[in-house]
Amino acid sequence: MEREYSFTSESVSNGHPDKIADQISDAILDAYLKEDENAKVACEVLITDNLIVISGEFKKNTINKIDVEKIARDVIKDIGYDKRWGFDPDECEIISKIKKQCEEITKGVEKSEGEIGAGDQGLMFGYATKETPEYMPLPLILAHKLMIEHNNLRRSVGFEWIGPDAKSQVTVRYRNNTPLYVESVVLSTLHLESYNDKVETIITEHLVDKVVPKEIRSKDFKLFINPAGPFTQGGPKTDTGLTGRKIVVDTYGGFCPNGGGCFSGKDATKVDRSASYMARFLAKNIVASGYAYKCTIQIAYAIGQTKPVSLMVDFHNTGNGKIDEQRVENIILDKFDLSPAGIINKLKLRTPIYQKTAAFGHFGREEFEWEKIEKI
């Protein structure tokens, strides 16, 4: 029986306060990994009006060598914040409270002979669908692309009046698993007050029309640009940001369940991050191999243990009929090392690549190892 429904996903810009916090957390993680590829990092950031708070648990030999305050200020400058937007990275206060990782956790994670125990208990999900070339849901891909183009546009000559803080939302109409058309787009962006009357026209012509062509829109397509009115005060001046608060944006836009933890600021021994990347790798390769139109994978771990406590594969009744989920689960457990060390080695997760993941989604971007397609 055919069923039509609408589904909505959102994204946020790299200048959204939550994403600023994510990027600072991951920039600090990258800095520690450059010093020591085996560094253990769990870094949390809070950002608000004229204040950044950095905290976390770390384990490395040179814990005091990293200038976390400079890293934070540099991230904010690179994003594009200055006095015009009510947040000056050179003048804001920074409070840093960093402590050593608990010795009990260290002993549980660091096994002998190169083995690594899971840095925490938890459940992680991966997802893939054939509905886009990226093997990602169409509403989320379009929402991300709107924010990527927003970032490009505001850095272009003549458009410096567009601010770093923005959000997008895309609604797509489906028939069963197939996207039919885009029903609506919502986009809000920070801007200078003197450009109030230009926002809708410029954003529509230079951003929305570029990302969402008219041929994929419904006949009664609706577009909302700054629907609450002028958006001249934003960013950390008016909104508090926290590490890990945009996990649905980071993952699959609501198409897939989420596990118990976020990604940013965590080294790869934390399976919240590494096992989520591995679950995405497996789900994407299953779909790319033609076993199913879409696939969800769940993996779960116990803290300190090297093997997962469970694995689940779900084709959502879209399998090709030649192989079932139970068989695929057995193949994965037989052919893939799902221990933290195995995942870290497979996906090359000791390298400082994490700040790049902290805006515009962790999945659907070919630059990352977990997005590679291999024959299964």
Q: Your description of this structure?
A:
There is one protein chain. By secondary structure, the protein is an alpha+beta fold. The strands form three sheets. Strands 1-6-7-8 form a four-stranded mixed sheet. Strands 4-3-2-9 form a four-stranded mixed sheet, with helices on one face. The longest helix has 19 residues, at 17-35. Helix 1 (17-35) crosses helix 2 (68-79) and helix 4 (138-154) packs across helix 5 (199-211). The model has no long low-confidence stretch (mean pLDDT 93). It is built from nine helices and eleven strands.
Shape: flat
Order of helices and strands: EHEEHEHEHEEHEEHHEEHH
* Mean pLDDT over the residues: 93
The major pleated sheet works out as:
4 strands, mixed
> What fraction, in percent, of the residue positions are helical?
25-40%
Question: Which radius of gyration do the C-alpha atoms yield?
Answer: 21 Å
> Quick one: how many beta strands?
11
Summarize the structure.
With 376 residues, the protein is of the alpha+beta class. It has helices at residues 17-35, 68-79, 103-109, 138-154, 199-211, 247-250, 271-288, 325-335, 340-347; strands spanning 4-12, 40-48, 51-59, 93-100, 122-129, 162-175, 178-191, 217-225, 241-242, 294-301, 310-314.
SSE layout and pairing:
Layout: E1 4-12, H1 17-35, E2 40-48, E3 51-59, H2 68-79, E4 93-100, H3 103-109, E5 122-129, H4 138-154, E6 162-175, E7 178-191, H5 199-211, E8 217-225, E9 241-242, H6 247-250, H7 271-288, E10 294-301, E11 310-314, H8 325-335, H9 340-347
Parallel strand pairs: 3-4, 7-8
Antiparallel strand pairs: 1-6, 2-3, 2-9, 5-10, 6-7, 10-11
Helix pairs in contact: 1-2, 4-5, 7-9
